[in-house]
């Protein structure tokens, strides 16, 4: 089985750059899917800079589609034998965001979190110095900190030991994650 590592954290913590660095180093990486979904939702709704869950007509359907896409990424890794695989966000991220926005969910959302398990979860902490809002990252820094808290709480609720990689150079953070995985798999 592939060794699955989720790299998550609130918006603007350097996840995407870190995933790209790991990929540059030859690792198999699944990229974040919400950015494209957000752009599509914004185009359909023609709304100003806000989180898609605040303006889509049916947030539950939006989250259901996001969950299905994350499950597809998870299942795809089963074809990759014995190699480290990295995800820019994981299945429990869907629930963490739903918790943050006060949305109700049922077993359709919780069961995949129980049954589809990652080997390592790395939650990147908020990093004010690099935080920028853009067309897909709509939260304020304070909101990003709240989302970070929900992410840590959600992963712990599902029994994960949450690892952390502090701010630093991209190269140092990628090396730290690779070394962390080697220790966890030893």
**Order of strands side by side in the largest beta sheet?**
2-3-1-4-5
> Structural class of the secondary structure composition?
alpha/beta
If classified by CATH, what would the architecture be? 3-Layer(aba) Sandwich
- What percentage of amino acids are in beta strands? 5-15%
CATH T-level topology: Rossmann fold
Give the helix level as a range of percent.
Answer: 40-55%
Low-confidence stretches: none
Query: Could you give the order of the helices and strands?
Result: EHEHHEHHEHEH
Number of strands: 5
Distance between the termini: 15 Å
Number of spatially distinct domains: 1
Radius of gyration: 16 Å
- Give the biggest beta sheet: 5 strands, parallel
Number of helices: 7
CATH class categorisation: Alpha Beta
What does this structure look like?
- This protein is an alpha/beta fold and 186 residues long.
- The chain has a single domain, classed as P-loop containing nucleotide triphosphate hydrolases (Rossmann fold, 3-Layer(aba) Sandwich), CATH 3.40.50.
- Helices cover 49% and strands 12% of the residues.
- The chain has seven helices and five strands.
- The protein has helices spanning 15-24, 34-45, 59-76, 91-100, 107-115, 141-157, 170-184, and strands spanning 3-9, 28-30, 84-88, 120-124, 162-163.
- Strands 2-3-1-4-5 form a five-stranded parallel beta sheet, sandwiched between helices.
- Helix 1 (15-24) packs across helix 7 (170-184) and helix 4 packs across helix 5 (107-115).
- It is globular, with a radius of gyration of 16 Å.
């Amino acid at each position: 089985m592939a060794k699955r590592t989720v790299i998550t954290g609130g918006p603007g913590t350097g996840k995407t750059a870190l995933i790209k660095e790991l990929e540059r180093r030859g690792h198999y990486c699944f990229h974040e899917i919400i950015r494209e979904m957000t752009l599509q939702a914004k185009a359909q709704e023609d709304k100003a800079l806000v989180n898609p869950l605040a303006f889509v007509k049916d947030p539950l359907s939006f989250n259901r589609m996001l969950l299905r896409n994350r499950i597809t990424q998870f299942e795809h890794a089963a074809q990759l034998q014995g190699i480290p695989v990295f995800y820019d966000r994981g299945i429990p991220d869907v629930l963490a965001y739903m918790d943050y926005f006060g949305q109700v969910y049922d077993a359709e959302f919780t069961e995949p979190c129980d049954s589809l398990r990652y080997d390592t979860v790395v939650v990147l902490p908020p990093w004010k110095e690099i935080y920028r809002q853009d067309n897909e990252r709509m939260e304020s820094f304070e909101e990003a900190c709240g989302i970070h808290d929900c992410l840590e709480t959600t992963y712990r609720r599902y029994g994960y030991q949450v690892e952390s990689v502090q701010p630093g150079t991209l190269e140092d953070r990628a090396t730290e994650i690779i070394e962390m995985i080697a220790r966890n798999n030893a």
